Amino acid sequence: MTIQNDTKKKSGLWKEFTKGIIKENPVLRLMLGCCAFLAVTTSASNAIGMGLATMFVLVGSNAVISLLRNVISDKIRIPAFITVIASFVTIVQLFIKAYSPDLDKALGVFLPLIVVNCIILGRAEAFASKNKVIPSIIDGLGMGIGFTAALLLMGIIRELLGAGTVFGLPLLSNFMPPVVIFLLPPGGFFVFGILVAVAGRLSKEKKAPDAMGCAYCPLSSSCTQLREIEEREGK
Amino acid sequence: MDATVIKGFVAIFLSAILTENYVLNKFLGICPFLGVSKKLNTAMGMSIAVTLVMVIATAVTWPLYMYVLVPNDLGYLQTIVFILVIAAIVQFLEIAIKKYMPPLYNSLGIYLPLITTNCAVLGVTMLVLDKGAADPTFGFSQSLVNAFGSGIGFLVAMVLFAGVRERLEKCDIPHFLKGMPITLIAASIVSVSFLGFSGLVDGLL
């Protein structure tokens, strides 16, 4: 009986871990954190730096918010979550500024903007504020790895097509000239669109998401209201 | 005010709308751009609310940073202070508008809670400080003009895109691209058109 319970518990944790990587990939399936995703993926190394920074904030804030979940009152939870998240972002900012100034310059304003990345607030609201510490950390790790993997994939594609290199290594230069538009904003939107389509095709539902992943957004109630207004006007 | 200063304001305003468009060139505020801009009316309402909050937030955070944080060596608290100030401003605006301007609240109130975590608002308050650090002539009034222009740029992008999406809904799209993918590809094409403006403002000066 205990063994069964143990395996059940383990598989539960394993499920929390893997769901963020494939089934509920935050960017490609839930469409969260699009701003950073589009902006920093001009090279694979920037993408991985952003991914790791976001993952650290996600795991740290999930852990702290889960520990404080019985202390924070429901009414002021959003400002409280934002304060916790902003503290972790400041830690990452200072760390990167000290140890990798080039990365700091490349990520620019998007490093402090991790604070408004809806993946983090969304996980705090949807998961960490309702679950124990260990599952919350696992959830943060899984979502962080899913985000980093998607960033890396997009970074490699855009760097390869736009500059002919991957992690600075020239790979394509002998076959074709680089197509610079992939490094520019239009290329970002385009590659993102194709990746979402492919991820949708490979998913169980066999289709790409119709809208943003509202179920995980802390502000979804306002959004739902908006959508209702739109529908009423549409009629 | 002499002519060069006014010329500078015009250049800042135009470049914030056309060459440094927040949504299409800088990837800030993508969530409302993709999530809200389905109908023209809601796109307009959202962008007007964003513009309002951008200008007020810049008007509060700029002096706060320059005269409180920097003299006390607290510059590293920028992220945490700014996001809390913006959250407070949005709350305050919601309450004030609800009390004193009910008709305005009916049309804009619903967008305000969505704006707290809009990265374009936090982005503008931080980017004007970066600009000020790079160019000493870029002061408080220039920052406000930049914030206003950025909001108008957001409006232009939202309204343009709402039009594109209204037409997209009636199109026959391959099953594989339906939903988000075709929206992103449409955004890519709109963004190509904004590439055409690059260099425009440098020519003005």
Can you walk me through this structure?
The complex is a heterodimer of chains A (235) and B (205). Chain A is an all-alpha fold. Chain A has one domain (16-234). Chain A has 9 helices and 2 strands, in the order αααααααββαα. Chain A has helices at 2-19, 34-39, 44-67, 77-99, 101-107, 118-128, 133-163, 185-202, 220-234; strands at 165-166, 169-170. In chain A, a hairpin with a 2-residue loop joins β1 and β2. The longest helix of chain A has 31 residues, at 133-163. The model of chain A has no long low-confidence stretch (mean pLDDT 83). Chain B is an all-alpha fold. Chain B has one domain. The longest helix of chain B has 30 residues, at 40-69. Chain B is globular. The two termini of chain B are 17 Å apart. The model of chain B has no long low-confidence stretch (mean pLDDT 86). The chains are: A mainly alpha (235), B mainly alpha (205). The interface between A and B is large, with 56 and 54 residues.
The count of helical stretches of chain A stands at 9
- Beta-strand share of residues of chain B: under 5%
Radius of gyration of chain B, CA atoms, in whole angstroms = 18 Å
**Outline type of chain B:** globular
Largest sheet of chain A: 2 strands, antiparallel
- List segments of chain A where confidence is low: pLDDT < 50 over at least 5 consecutive residues: none
Average pLDDT value of chain B? Answer: 86
Kindly provide the radius of gyration of chain A, computed on alpha-carbon positions and rounded to a whole number of angstroms.
19 Å
Poorly predicted segments of chain B: none
Q: Give me the number of helical elements of chain B.
A: 10
Secondary-structure-based class of chain B equals mainly alpha
Shape type of chain A: globular
Oligomeric state of this protein: heterodimer
**Number of folding domains of chain B?**
1
Q: How many structural domains does the protein architecture of chain A include?
A: 1
Task: Tell me which protein chains meet in the greatest interface and how many residues each side has.
Answer: A-B, 56 and 54 residues
Q: Count the beta strands of chain A.
A: 2
Order of helices and strands of chain B: HHHHHHHHHH
Strand count of chain B:
0
